[in-house]
Design goal:
Helix content: 25-40%
Low-confidence stretches: 284-290
Radius of gyration: 17 Å
CATH class: Alpha Beta
Number of domains: 1
Number of helices: 12
CATH superfamily: Divalent-metal-dependent TIM barrel enzymes
Order of helices and strands: EHEHHEHEHEHEHHEHHEHH
Length: 290
């Protein structure tokens, strides 16, 4: 049975404007996560810096609330057309400073200028992460160069790095081209799915996919995502992903961080009743000390 301590809440969802959150808003979000028993948070590097340029301040604020930073989001430069990764080391430095064993990698480009270069860039990011004992989860976004689970599988497979895996966001899962693809998921090893971001999706897609994703996601159980079926497939393949609720919803965030965090916790507990969640761990190469 899922309990709040299993969940690493995406802190950005509690912030009225996640792209311009000040220190007060960040601390209020952490307070709300702690109040409702979440085990940790998934933190944008932006919010860590908005609290204080020294990540030790954010780490201390998290620790003081008996939370932990489970994930740092997100590295985006690994797929740059010129082959220069401008934020990978920064993201890894941040994760290491915060004690997080997981980062997210994503591309915001509509198409890769050079797919081979993107594969090499992801592999290189994974190699640098492995030196620090950190996992790298590739997130697919329906409007970008990695639009679906199949594309994410192809890229991570081509990169061939044992600490490289996939982030399955349940809104993106529902909205990916062609819709949910349990048959593809069922063919993966459990270790391929490092993270699941929990939220729901309305039955009818909006006209602006990115706008909908950032402001109109329902709570788990209030949309059309088949959580029972998804959890069943993940359990069948032996996946034990980090569970990170990410419910961007403009109306719910207006109710305040505490009320919103409580609603997220209740929805996740009632919807994701299957096992399969893992607590954070750092990747270790085969044969290394645990």
């Amino acid at each position: 049975m899922t309990v709040p301590a299993d969940l690493g809440l995406c802190l950005a969802t509690l912030l009225p404007d996640p792209f311009a959150a000040d220190a007060t808003a960040v601390l209020s979000g952490l307070d709300a996560a702690a109040e409702h028993g979440f085990g940790g948070v998934s933190a944008w590097s932006l919010h860590v810096m908005n609290l204080d340029p020294d990540p030790k301040v954010f780490a201390g604020a998290v620790r003081d609330r008996d939370l932990e930073v489970r994930v740092v989001e997100a590295a985006t430069g690994w797929a740059a057309a010129d082959g220069i990764d401008r934020d990978g080391d920064f993201t890894l430095d941040m994760a290491e400073a915060l004690g997080a064993g997981q980062i997210v990698a994503v591309t915001l480009e509509a198409a890769f200028a050079d797919r081979q270069r993107a594969v090499a860039g992801f592999a290189d990011l994974c190699d640098r992460a492995a030196e620090r004992g950190i996992n790298v989860a590739l997130e697919f976004l329906p409007w970008c160069a990695v639009p679906d689970l199949a594309s994410a599988c192809a890229l991570t497979g081509a990169a061939g790095r044992p600490n490289g895996g996939i982030l399955l966001d349940t809104w993106h899962w529902q909205r990916q081209p062609g819709g949910p693809c349990p048959e593809i998921l069922a063919g993966l090893p459990g270790s391929a799915i490092q993270m699941v971001q929990l939220c729901d999706a309305a039955e009818v897609p909006g006209d602006d996919p990115m706008g909908e994703a950032m402001s109109a996601r329902p709570l788990p159980g209030e949309g059309v995502v088949d959580f029972a079926a998804l959890a069943s497939v993940l359990e069948e393949i032996g996946a034990t992903p980090l569970l990170c609720p990410e419910v961007f919803n403009r109306k719910l965030v207006a109710e305040g961080p505490s009320t919103f965090a409580g609603a997220i916790a209740d929805a996740c507990i009632s919807t994701w009743s299957s096992g399969g969640a893992s607590r954070p761990s750092r990747w270790r190469p085969l044969g290394s000390a645990s």
